[in-house]
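Preliminary data (for renewal application), zinc ion complex.
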Amino acid sequence: MSRLLIKDVRYLVTMDEDRRELKDHSILIEDGIITRVETDIEPESDWEVIDAAHMWVFPGLINTHHHFYQALTRCLGEVQEAELFPWLKTLYPIWARLTPAGVRAGTRVALAELIKSGCTTASDHHYVFPRGQDPHLIDQQIEAAGELGVRFHPCRGSMSRGEDEGGLPPREVVQKEEEILEDSRRLIEKYHDPRPYSMCQIVLAPCSPFSVTPELLKETAVLARQYGVRCHTHLAETADEDDYCQKELGMRPLEFMEKMGWTGPDVWYAHGIHFQDEELEVLARTGTGVAHCPVSNQKLSSGVARIPEMLELGVPVGLAVDGSASNDASNMLLEMKSALLLHKLYYGIDAMDARKVLEMATRGGARLLGRPELGSIAPGQAADLFLVDARRVGFAGAQSDPVTALLTCGDALQADLTIIGGRVVVREGKLTEFDEEEINREAVAQSRAMLEKG
Ligand SMILES: [Zn+2]
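Predicted structure:
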Protein backbone atom coordinates (compact mmCIF):
# COMPACT_ATOMS: atom_id res chain seq x y z
CA MET A 1 0.00 0.00 0.00
CA SER A 2 1.29 3.50 -0.82
CA ARG A 3 0.98 6.13 1.91
CA LEU A 4 1.35 9.88 1.61
CA LEU A 5 1.12 12.15 4.65
CA ILE A 6 0.45 15.86 4.24
CA LYS A 7 1.71 16.93 7.61
CA ASP A 8 0.70 19.80 9.89
CA VAL A 9 -1.25 21.84 7.35
CA ARG A 10 -1.24 25.48 8.38
CA TYR A 11 -4.81 26.02 7.14
CA LEU A 12 -7.02 23.28 5.69
CA VAL A 13 -10.25 24.14 3.88
CA THR A 14 -12.13 20.83 3.82
CA MET A 15 -15.45 21.71 2.11
CA ASP A 16 -16.71 18.66 4.05
CA GLU A 17 -20.34 18.24 5.23
CA ASP A 18 -19.79 20.86 7.95
CA ARG A 19 -17.54 23.07 5.76
CA ARG A 20 -14.83 22.85 8.42
CA GLU A 21 -11.67 24.94 8.13
CA LEU A 22 -8.92 23.47 10.29
CA LYS A 23 -5.51 24.54 11.60
CA ASP A 24 -2.51 22.24 12.11
CA HIS A 25 -4.21 19.07 10.89
CA SER A 26 -2.59 16.32 8.82
CA ILE A 27 -4.07 14.35 5.94
CA LEU A 28 -3.23 10.68 5.44
CA ILE A 29 -3.67 9.29 1.93
CA GLU A 30 -3.64 5.53 1.40
CA ASP A 31 -3.72 4.13 -2.15
CA GLY A 32 -5.23 7.32 -3.52
CA ILE A 33 -7.95 7.71 -0.88
CA ILE A 34 -8.02 10.04 2.13
CA THR A 35 -8.22 7.87 5.25
CA ARG A 36 -7.53 10.27 8.14
CA VAL A 37 -7.79 14.02 8.76
CA GLU A 38 -6.43 14.57 12.28
CA THR A 39 -3.88 16.42 14.37
CA ASP A 40 -0.63 14.67 15.26
CA ILE A 41 -0.42 11.80 12.77
CA GLU A 42 3.13 10.43 13.09
CA PRO A 43 4.56 8.97 9.86
CA GLU A 44 6.15 5.53 9.64
CA SER A 45 9.47 5.07 7.89
CA ASP A 46 8.09 4.02 4.49
CA TRP A 47 5.54 6.86 4.15
CA GLU A 48 6.10 9.77 1.82
CA VAL A 49 5.72 13.01 3.79
CA ILE A 50 4.95 16.54 2.57
CA ASP A 51 5.63 19.20 5.18
CA ALA A 52 2.65 21.56 4.94
CA ALA A 53 3.40 23.81 7.91
CA HIS A 54 3.49 26.79 5.54
CA MET A 55 0.76 25.58 3.25
CA TRP A 56 -2.90 26.26 2.75
CA VAL A 57 -4.73 23.19 1.42
CA PHE A 58 -7.94 23.11 -0.62
CA PRO A 59 -9.99 20.35 -2.29
CA GLY A 60 -9.10 19.84 -5.97
CA LEU A 61 -11.08 22.04 -8.34
CA ILE A 62 -13.50 20.49 -10.82
CA ASN A 63 -13.83 21.97 -14.28
CA THR A 64 -17.25 21.16 -15.73
CA HIS A 65 -17.02 22.51 -19.31
CA HIS A 66 -14.18 22.99 -21.78
CA HIS A 67 -13.09 22.54 -25.40
CA PHE A 68 -9.43 21.53 -25.16
CA TYR A 69 -8.80 21.61 -28.93
CA GLN A 70 -9.41 25.37 -28.93
CA ALA A 71 -6.02 25.80 -27.25
CA LEU A 72 -4.69 25.70 -30.84
CA THR A 73 -6.82 28.66 -31.96
CA ARG A 74 -6.49 31.22 -29.18
CA CYS A 75 -6.47 34.98 -29.57
CA LEU A 76 -7.19 35.03 -33.32
CA GLY A 77 -7.53 38.67 -34.37
CA GLU A 78 -10.55 38.11 -36.60
CA VAL A 79 -12.83 37.00 -33.74
CA GLN A 80 -11.79 39.31 -30.93
CA GLU A 81 -14.77 41.59 -31.58
CA ALA A 82 -17.26 38.83 -32.46
CA GLU A 83 -20.19 37.53 -30.38
CA LEU A 84 -20.93 33.79 -30.30
CA PHE A 85 -22.67 33.13 -33.65
CA PRO A 86 -20.26 35.09 -35.89
CA TRP A 87 -17.39 33.86 -33.67
CA LEU A 88 -18.42 30.24 -34.37
CA LYS A 89 -19.00 30.81 -38.08
CA THR A 90 -15.49 32.26 -38.45
CA LEU A 91 -13.83 29.48 -36.46
CA TYR A 92 -15.70 26.39 -37.82
CA PRO A 93 -13.70 26.32 -41.12
CA ILE A 94 -10.42 26.52 -39.17
CA TRP A 95 -11.54 23.81 -36.76
CA ALA A 96 -12.49 21.67 -39.79
CA ARG A 97 -8.70 21.15 -40.23
CA LEU A 98 -8.32 19.57 -36.79
CA THR A 99 -6.34 16.29 -36.76
CA PRO A 100 -5.87 13.57 -34.09
CA ALA A 101 -2.39 14.97 -33.39
CA GLY A 102 -3.93 18.42 -32.94
CA VAL A 103 -6.50 17.08 -30.48
CA ARG A 104 -3.76 15.41 -28.50
CA ALA A 105 -1.65 18.58 -28.42
CA GLY A 106 -4.58 20.80 -27.38
CA THR A 107 -5.61 18.34 -24.69
CA ARG A 108 -2.11 18.27 -23.19
CA VAL A 109 -1.93 22.08 -23.09
CA ALA A 110 -5.36 22.53 -21.49
CA LEU A 111 -4.83 19.78 -18.92
CA ALA A 112 -1.38 21.10 -18.02
CA GLU A 113 -2.82 24.57 -17.45
CA LEU A 114 -5.73 23.16 -15.44
CA ILE A 115 -3.68 21.07 -13.03
CA LYS A 116 -1.25 23.95 -12.50
CA SER A 117 -4.25 25.97 -11.31
CA GLY A 118 -5.40 23.36 -8.77
CA CYS A 119 -7.85 21.48 -11.00
CA THR A 120 -7.97 17.71 -10.42
CA THR A 121 -11.05 16.63 -12.39
CA ALA A 122 -11.70 17.92 -15.88
CA SER A 123 -14.60 17.57 -18.23
CA ASP A 124 -14.16 18.28 -21.93
CA HIS A 125 -16.85 18.75 -24.58
CA HIS A 126 -15.37 17.66 -27.91
CA TYR A 127 -17.80 18.12 -30.80
CA VAL A 128 -15.61 18.78 -33.89
CA PHE A 129 -15.16 15.62 -35.98
CA PRO A 130 -14.00 16.84 -39.42
CA ARG A 131 -15.18 14.90 -42.45
CA GLY A 132 -12.57 12.53 -43.94
CA GLN A 133 -10.51 12.56 -40.74
CA ASP A 134 -9.82 9.68 -38.33
CA PRO A 135 -12.86 10.05 -35.99
CA HIS A 136 -11.16 8.53 -32.92
CA LEU A 137 -10.48 11.92 -31.40
CA ILE A 138 -11.87 11.31 -27.90
CA ASP A 139 -9.54 8.31 -27.68
CA GLN A 140 -6.61 10.72 -28.09
CA GLN A 141 -7.92 12.82 -25.21
CA ILE A 142 -8.44 9.84 -22.92
CA GLU A 143 -4.91 8.64 -23.57
CA ALA A 144 -3.43 12.10 -22.85
CA ALA A 145 -5.49 12.56 -19.66
CA GLY A 146 -4.35 9.11 -18.47
CA GLU A 147 -0.69 10.03 -19.01
CA LEU A 148 -1.04 13.33 -17.16
CA GLY A 149 -2.97 11.60 -14.35
CA VAL A 150 -6.10 13.77 -14.51
CA ARG A 151 -9.56 12.49 -13.53
CA PHE A 152 -11.42 12.90 -16.78
CA HIS A 153 -15.03 13.19 -17.99
CA PRO A 154 -14.86 13.30 -21.79
CA CYS A 155 -18.13 14.45 -23.31
CA ARG A 156 -18.73 12.84 -26.71
CA GLY A 157 -19.99 15.91 -28.53
CA SER A 158 -21.65 15.97 -31.93
CA MET A 159 -23.01 18.16 -34.70
CA SER A 160 -25.56 16.66 -37.12
CA ARG A 161 -27.42 19.68 -38.49
CA GLY A 162 -25.37 21.61 -41.05
CA GLU A 163 -26.05 24.91 -42.76
CA ASP A 164 -27.94 23.16 -45.56
CA GLU A 165 -30.45 21.86 -42.99
CA GLY A 166 -30.93 25.13 -41.15
CA GLY A 167 -28.14 24.62 -38.60
CA LEU A 168 -25.11 26.84 -37.95
CA PRO A 169 -22.04 24.66 -38.75
CA PRO A 170 -20.72 23.94 -42.27
CA ARG A 171 -21.06 20.43 -43.77
CA GLU A 172 -17.36 19.58 -43.26
CA VAL A 173 -17.81 19.27 -39.48
CA VAL A 174 -21.21 17.56 -39.41
CA GLN A 175 -21.62 13.81 -38.88
CA LYS A 176 -24.45 11.39 -39.57
CA GLU A 177 -26.64 10.48 -36.60
CA GLU A 178 -25.96 6.72 -36.87
CA GLU A 179 -22.23 7.37 -36.88
CA ILE A 180 -22.49 9.58 -33.75
CA LEU A 181 -24.61 7.10 -31.79
CA GLU A 182 -22.39 4.19 -32.83
CA ASP A 183 -19.24 6.00 -31.66
CA SER A 184 -20.98 7.03 -28.41
CA ARG A 185 -21.78 3.38 -27.71
CA ARG A 186 -18.23 2.33 -28.55
CA LEU A 187 -16.70 4.92 -26.21
CA ILE A 188 -18.95 3.98 -23.30
CA GLU A 189 -18.24 0.27 -23.70
CA LYS A 190 -14.51 0.78 -24.07
CA TYR A 191 -13.76 3.47 -21.49
CA HIS A 192 -16.63 4.26 -19.08
CA ASP A 193 -15.78 3.21 -15.53
CA PRO A 194 -18.80 3.90 -13.27
CA ARG A 195 -17.09 2.88 -10.02
CA PRO A 196 -16.25 5.32 -7.21
CA TYR A 197 -12.75 6.86 -7.64
CA SER A 198 -13.01 6.20 -11.39
CA MET A 199 -10.49 8.06 -13.56
CA CYS A 200 -12.70 8.12 -16.67
CA GLN A 201 -16.44 8.51 -17.17
CA ILE A 202 -18.01 9.15 -20.58
CA VAL A 203 -20.72 11.77 -21.06
CA LEU A 204 -22.93 12.18 -24.17
CA ALA A 205 -23.11 15.74 -25.43
CA PRO A 206 -24.73 16.93 -28.68
CA CYS A 207 -23.31 20.42 -29.19
CA SER A 208 -26.33 22.77 -29.01
CA PRO A 209 -29.93 23.18 -30.22
CA PHE A 210 -28.64 25.03 -33.31
CA SER A 211 -26.19 22.36 -34.47
CA VAL A 212 -28.01 19.03 -34.02
CA THR A 213 -31.35 17.55 -35.04
CA PRO A 214 -34.18 16.94 -32.54
CA GLU A 215 -33.95 13.21 -33.33
CA LEU A 216 -30.30 13.10 -32.25
CA LEU A 217 -31.10 14.83 -28.96
CA LYS A 218 -33.89 12.38 -28.17
CA GLU A 219 -31.92 9.30 -29.13
CA THR A 220 -28.84 10.48 -27.25
CA ALA A 221 -30.81 10.89 -24.01
CA VAL A 222 -32.30 7.41 -24.42
CA LEU A 223 -28.88 5.89 -25.09
CA ALA A 224 -27.27 7.71 -22.14
CA ARG A 225 -29.95 6.46 -19.78
CA GLN A 226 -29.62 2.88 -21.05
CA TYR A 227 -25.97 2.98 -20.02
CA GLY A 228 -26.37 5.21 -16.95
CA VAL A 229 -24.08 7.95 -18.26
CA ARG A 230 -24.69 11.71 -18.02
CA CYS A 231 -25.86 14.21 -20.65
CA HIS A 232 -24.37 17.63 -21.34
CA THR A 233 -24.87 20.43 -23.88
CA HIS A 234 -24.69 24.19 -24.38
CA LEU A 235 -27.91 26.02 -23.53
CA ALA A 236 -29.22 29.56 -23.12
CA GLU A 237 -25.85 31.09 -23.95
CA THR A 238 -26.96 34.01 -26.14
CA ALA A 239 -29.93 36.05 -27.29
CA ASP A 240 -29.17 34.77 -30.84
CA GLU A 241 -29.88 31.24 -29.59
CA ASP A 242 -33.25 32.35 -28.18
CA ASP A 243 -34.11 33.86 -31.57
CA TYR A 244 -32.94 30.75 -33.43
CA CYS A 245 -35.04 28.43 -31.25
CA GLN A 246 -38.15 30.60 -31.59
CA LYS A 247 -37.75 30.78 -35.37
CA GLU A 248 -36.65 27.21 -36.19
CA LEU A 249 -38.26 25.23 -33.37
CA GLY A 250 -41.16 27.48 -32.36
CA MET A 251 -40.24 27.55 -28.67
CA ARG A 252 -37.68 28.72 -26.13
CA PRO A 253 -34.46 26.69 -25.68
CA LEU A 254 -35.32 25.11 -22.32
CA GLU A 255 -38.86 24.23 -23.34
CA PHE A 256 -37.41 22.49 -26.40
CA MET A 257 -34.82 20.57 -24.35
CA GLU A 258 -37.48 19.47 -21.87
CA LYS A 259 -39.51 18.03 -24.76
CA MET A 260 -36.39 16.16 -25.95
CA GLY A 261 -36.05 14.47 -22.52
CA TRP A 262 -33.13 16.69 -21.57
CA THR A 263 -33.88 17.67 -17.97
CA GLY A 264 -33.06 15.80 -14.77
CA PRO A 265 -30.24 15.32 -12.27
CA ASP A 266 -28.20 13.47 -14.93
CA VAL A 267 -28.17 16.53 -17.23
CA TRP A 268 -26.10 19.71 -17.01
CA TYR A 269 -25.94 22.67 -19.35
CA ALA A 270 -23.01 24.95 -20.12
CA HIS A 271 -23.66 28.69 -19.58
CA GLY A 272 -27.39 28.91 -18.77
CA ILE A 273 -27.47 32.69 -19.08
CA HIS A 274 -30.80 33.60 -20.69
CA PHE A 275 -33.25 31.76 -18.44
CA GLN A 276 -36.51 33.37 -17.35
CA ASP A 277 -37.89 33.13 -13.78
CA GLU A 278 -40.10 30.09 -14.42
CA GLU A 279 -37.23 28.37 -16.24
CA LEU A 280 -34.99 28.67 -13.18
CA GLU A 281 -37.74 26.91 -11.27
CA VAL A 282 -37.79 24.09 -13.84
CA LEU A 283 -34.05 23.62 -13.33
CA ALA A 284 -34.46 23.55 -9.55
CA ARG A 285 -37.44 21.17 -9.62
CA THR A 286 -35.77 18.71 -12.00
CA GLY A 287 -32.26 18.97 -10.50
CA THR A 288 -30.83 19.97 -13.89
CA GLY A 289 -27.40 21.55 -13.49
CA VAL A 290 -25.54 24.54 -14.90
CA ALA A 291 -21.80 24.96 -15.61
CA HIS A 292 -21.06 28.64 -15.00
CA CYS A 293 -18.39 30.11 -17.32
CA PRO A 294 -17.93 33.73 -16.20
CA VAL A 295 -14.78 34.58 -18.20
CA SER A 296 -16.15 33.29 -21.51
CA ASN A 297 -19.51 34.94 -20.88
CA GLN A 298 -17.77 38.27 -20.35
CA LYS A 299 -15.31 37.88 -23.21
CA LEU A 300 -18.01 37.00 -25.78
CA SER A 301 -20.35 39.57 -24.21
CA SER A 302 -22.98 36.82 -23.87
CA GLY A 303 -24.53 38.08 -20.63
CA VAL A 304 -24.51 37.43 -16.86
CA ALA A 305 -25.80 34.03 -15.71
CA ARG A 306 -28.28 34.30 -12.83
CA ILE A 307 -26.04 32.30 -10.50
CA PRO A 308 -26.95 33.89 -7.11
CA GLU A 309 -30.62 33.26 -7.89
CA MET A 310 -29.91 29.69 -9.01
CA LEU A 311 -28.02 28.95 -5.79
CA GLU A 312 -30.88 30.42 -3.78
CA LEU A 313 -33.36 28.12 -5.58
CA GLY A 314 -31.14 25.04 -5.17
CA VAL A 315 -30.15 24.62 -8.83
CA PRO A 316 -26.94 22.52 -9.03
CA VAL A 317 -24.16 24.86 -10.21
CA GLY A 318 -20.52 24.10 -11.06
CA LEU A 319 -17.75 26.30 -12.41
CA ALA A 320 -15.97 26.01 -15.76
CA VAL A 321 -13.41 27.79 -17.92
CA ASP A 322 -15.15 26.99 -21.27
CA GLY A 323 -13.08 26.52 -24.44
CA SER A 324 -9.65 28.01 -24.86
CA ALA A 325 -10.74 30.28 -27.72
CA SER A 326 -13.21 32.20 -25.58
CA ASN A 327 -11.36 32.47 -22.27
CA ASP A 328 -8.39 32.05 -23.33
CA ALA A 329 -6.91 30.50 -20.19
CA SER A 330 -7.59 27.15 -18.55
CA ASN A 331 -7.07 28.53 -15.08
CA MET A 332 -9.64 27.60 -12.44
CA LEU A 333 -8.22 30.06 -9.90
CA LEU A 334 -8.69 32.91 -12.35
CA GLU A 335 -12.20 31.61 -13.09
CA MET A 336 -13.09 31.71 -9.39
CA LYS A 337 -11.83 35.26 -9.09
CA SER A 338 -13.87 36.27 -12.11
CA ALA A 339 -17.06 34.64 -10.75
CA LEU A 340 -16.64 36.46 -7.44
CA LEU A 341 -16.10 39.87 -8.99
CA LEU A 342 -18.75 39.55 -11.72
CA HIS A 343 -21.59 38.80 -9.31
CA LYS A 344 -20.50 41.40 -6.76
CA LEU A 345 -20.58 43.98 -9.53
CA TYR A 346 -23.81 42.86 -11.17
CA TYR A 347 -25.95 41.69 -8.23
CA GLY A 348 -24.53 43.69 -5.34
CA ILE A 349 -21.83 43.49 -2.72
CA ASP A 350 -23.31 40.59 -0.70
CA ALA A 351 -24.48 38.46 -3.68
CA MET A 352 -21.31 36.37 -3.79
CA ASP A 353 -18.38 35.52 -1.52
CA ALA A 354 -15.20 33.49 -1.85
CA ARG A 355 -16.57 30.47 0.01
CA LYS A 356 -19.66 30.23 -2.19
CA VAL A 357 -17.45 30.35 -5.28
CA LEU A 358 -15.05 27.72 -3.92
CA GLU A 359 -18.03 25.50 -3.09
CA MET A 360 -19.28 25.85 -6.69
CA ALA A 361 -15.85 24.89 -8.01
CA THR A 362 -15.56 21.81 -5.75
CA ARG A 363 -18.75 20.27 -4.32
CA GLY A 364 -20.85 21.94 -7.04
CA GLY A 365 -18.80 20.42 -9.83
CA ALA A 366 -18.81 17.01 -8.13
CA ARG A 367 -22.61 17.12 -8.06
CA LEU A 368 -22.88 17.96 -11.77
CA LEU A 369 -20.63 15.04 -12.63
CA GLY A 370 -22.33 12.65 -10.19
CA ARG A 371 -19.15 12.15 -8.12
CA PRO A 372 -19.96 12.40 -4.39
CA GLU A 373 -16.48 11.06 -3.56
CA LEU A 374 -14.91 14.21 -5.06
CA GLY A 375 -14.97 17.90 -4.09
CA SER A 376 -14.09 17.72 -0.39
CA ILE A 377 -11.33 16.63 1.97
CA ALA A 378 -12.58 13.99 4.41
CA PRO A 379 -11.95 10.29 5.18
CA GLY A 380 -13.29 8.17 2.32
CA GLN A 381 -12.93 10.90 -0.28
CA ALA A 382 -10.61 10.65 -3.28
CA ALA A 383 -7.22 12.22 -2.53
CA ASP A 384 -7.64 15.14 -4.93
CA LEU A 385 -6.35 18.41 -3.50
CA PHE A 386 -3.97 21.31 -4.02
CA LEU A 387 -1.61 23.28 -1.83
CA VAL A 388 -0.46 26.88 -1.98
CA ASP A 389 2.49 28.28 -0.09
CA ALA A 390 1.29 30.98 2.31
CA ARG A 391 4.80 32.47 2.32
CA ARG A 392 4.48 33.79 -1.24
CA VAL A 393 4.88 37.53 -1.36
CA GLY A 394 1.49 37.87 -3.03
CA PHE A 395 -0.22 36.51 0.09
CA ALA A 396 1.57 38.78 2.55
CA GLY A 397 -0.88 40.47 4.90
CA ALA A 398 -3.74 38.14 3.90
CA GLN A 399 -3.25 35.44 6.55
CA SER A 400 -6.56 36.18 8.29
CA ASP A 401 -8.66 34.60 5.53
CA PRO A 402 -6.93 32.09 3.22
CA VAL A 403 -10.12 31.41 1.22
CA THR A 404 -10.64 35.03 0.20
CA ALA A 405 -6.87 35.34 -0.28
CA LEU A 406 -6.88 32.38 -2.69
CA LEU A 407 -9.43 34.12 -4.91
CA THR A 408 -8.27 37.69 -4.72
CA CYS A 409 -4.49 37.69 -4.00
CA GLY A 410 -1.71 35.46 -5.21
CA ASP A 411 1.30 35.97 -7.41
CA ALA A 412 0.26 34.16 -10.51
CA LEU A 413 -2.93 32.26 -9.69
CA GLN A 414 -1.07 28.94 -9.60
CA ALA A 415 -1.00 25.99 -7.23
CA ASP A 416 2.33 25.00 -5.68
CA LEU A 417 1.35 21.32 -5.45
CA THR A 418 -1.53 19.46 -7.05
CA ILE A 419 -2.35 15.91 -6.02
CA ILE A 420 -4.77 13.63 -7.89
CA GLY A 421 -5.66 10.25 -6.45
CA GLY A 422 -2.59 10.52 -4.23
CA ARG A 423 -0.24 11.19 -7.19
CA VAL A 424 1.69 14.48 -7.09
CA VAL A 425 1.20 15.90 -10.60
CA VAL A 426 2.41 19.46 -9.87
CA ARG A 427 5.25 20.35 -7.49
CA GLU A 428 6.71 23.81 -6.94
CA GLY A 429 4.26 25.05 -9.55
CA LYS A 430 5.62 22.76 -12.32
CA LEU A 431 4.42 19.51 -13.86
CA THR A 432 6.32 16.71 -12.14
CA GLU A 433 6.50 14.20 -14.98
CA PHE A 434 6.26 16.25 -18.17
CA ASP A 435 8.32 18.89 -19.92
CA GLU A 436 6.11 21.97 -20.23
CA GLU A 437 8.24 23.39 -23.03
CA GLU A 438 7.79 20.21 -25.02
CA ILE A 439 3.99 20.40 -24.55
CA ASN A 440 4.13 24.00 -25.74
CA ARG A 441 6.31 23.16 -28.79
CA GLU A 442 4.00 20.35 -29.88
CA ALA A 443 0.94 22.62 -29.65
CA VAL A 444 2.60 25.55 -31.41
CA ALA A 445 3.51 23.27 -34.34
CA GLN A 446 -0.02 21.85 -34.51
CA SER A 447 -1.57 25.30 -34.26
CA ARG A 448 0.65 26.63 -37.04
CA ALA A 449 -0.20 23.70 -39.31
CA MET A 450 -3.92 24.26 -38.75
CA LEU A 451 -3.83 28.00 -39.35
CA GLU A 452 -1.51 27.84 -42.35
CA LYS A 453 -3.56 25.22 -44.20
CA GLY A 454 -6.28 27.82 -44.80
ZN1 LIG B 1 -18.58 25.69 -24.67
